[in-house]
Amino acid sequence: MDLRQATGDLVGITTSGTLESGESLLYDHDAIVREAGEAIHANYQSLPDLGGLLEHPFTMAELRSLHEAVIGKRLLTDTFRRRMEPLLEVHHEADGSPAMRSDGGRPAQLYVHRSKPSGLAIGAGGFHVPHGEPPRPRSGSR
Description:
The protein is an alpha+beta fold. It is about 25% helix and about 15% strand. The chain is built from 3 helices and 6 strands. The strands form 2 sheets. Strands 1, 2, 3 and 4 form a 4-stranded antiparallel β-sheet that branches. A two-stranded antiparallel sheet has the order 5-6. The chain is elongated, with a radius of gyration of 19 Å. The termini are far apart. Residues about 120-140 have low confidence and may be disordered.
């Protein structure tokens, strides 16, 4: 759904999934919102921008800022970079060189989302291995 076409009023929710006003939602919707918030927080702690909120290409600092906003706390720069870099692809210029962006400071490497790993599907809880036969051990392994 394209949110630019949505109508209605946005209401604030807390990190625990309750309305900022303190009002309760109907039926079990408080629990639904809380569980959705927990799933989003868990995904944004381990996988890069599953919601696709950043436009390509983006810098690692932009990605970290987004994740900090979603999670609601500061993240260690080096730890975040080590966790996310293997899950991203370096964006390249037309001549094949790595693309960089400079907004007056030190140039920053540009990234794009890596293609989804084959055999995996992204769901509400993150990456899931499809059901079927269990993986076979590689030859030579125990």
